[in-house]
Amino acid sequence: MTADAFPMVERMAWLRLARTETVGPVAFQHLIRRFGSASKALDALPELARRAGRPTPPAIYTLEQANAEITEGETRGGALLCACESAFPGALKALDPPPPVIWALGDAALLQRRTVAIVGARVASAAGCRFARGLAGELGGAGLVIASGLARGVDAAAHEGSLPTGTVAVLGGGLGDIYPPENEALYRQIAERGCIVSESIPRRRAQAKDFPRRNRLISGLSLAVVVVEAELKSGSLITARLAAEQGREVLAVPGSPLDPRARGCNDLIRQGAAVCEGADDVLRAIDQIGGFRAPPPAAYDAGDGETSSELLERVFDLLSPTPAPIDELARLVGAPAPAVFAALVELSLAGRAELLAGGHAARA
Q: Quick count: other Cβ atoms within 10 Å of Cβ 216?
């Protein structure tokens, strides 16, 4: 369905479904395929959750809440982009699953251009910041947009270096949640000259659980991710891992083994990441990448039909806090994978299971 053919009532239903309790991106995508529209999925949610063992209906995002969110976002100058619309970034549409909605503040056309992410340590060295700033400027001069996370250190330097040519800042919180506070001036500059992106409700304060989701968008927007400095448990390594899972190129800047901030990068190189010593390394890595295409929507397939109570409980009994491949669960249950996946979606709506990207599920 194109943006022109997307009725406002269905657009509101799309937002409401995306914001509803227990509906993550994986469940959202399944529900749209299963019911054909967000409106029909919303109508079915209470019964699906009840059948999967939820004693009370999930808290469905109301029409009033959706209207308030749109008013708040647009008052701040933002635009709501839905994954079913042509204005939605093509690179994010190609993710499995894509984020159902994002907010964009500034020049949203930048989200359709070829992009490279530059990320790294918050407590970065002067040399690391200088390298990130210079690399961003050179790649911007070559026609690329630079994406990062508006954090201290390397992220801020990458944004500063690419302000004249195009930069995208992805937030953990909502539009207007500026973190760290000392980057407020940079936030304002990017809003005027680049683009700020958020998957959250405007003004929502970022929590720790939001940053992996932010990192997934940073890598998802990009052809490649360059890690400049990172300790072994750095969030930048999460971005690099997500990039590899998404089929993006991963590059790392090597550093001294005496500097803890180089250990993460050196470890990435040991695992197969390309070495980045300058813009030419990045340009070579992405030279043959034309872009990412969203797969055609698959027809809904529930295997043997609608899920039964027996199947729901058999699938739930196999779940543990450790993620398991859905194909493996289907093999153990002895049921078609689509039917097991449908059962997992219902269990997730009931708050009993968690659906993860990459075809895995765990007990909630």
A: 23
Candidates 347, 303, 114; CA nearest to 221 is 114
Give per-residue pLDDT as tens, 316-357. Answer: 999 999 999 999 999 999 999 999 999 999 999 999 999 987
Q: What is the value of pTM for the model shown?
A: 0.92
CA distance linking residue 325 with residue 289, whole number of Å: 29
Q: Tell which residue, 121, 179, 200, 129, has the closest CA to residue 159.
A: 129
What are the backbone dihedrals phi and psi of residue 86, each rounded to the nearest 5 degrees, phi first? Answer: -65, -25
* 8 contacts: CB under 8 Å, gap ≥ 6: none
Contact by Cβ (8 Å): 305, 342: no
What does 212-229 look like in DSSP terms, one character per residue?
Answer: HHHHHHHHHT-SEEEE-S
C-alpha distances in Å from residue 3, one per residue of 17, 84, 87, 148, 352: 18, 7, 8, 28, 35
Measuring CA to CA, how many Å separate 18 from each of 25, 31, 59, 279? 8, 11, 12, 38
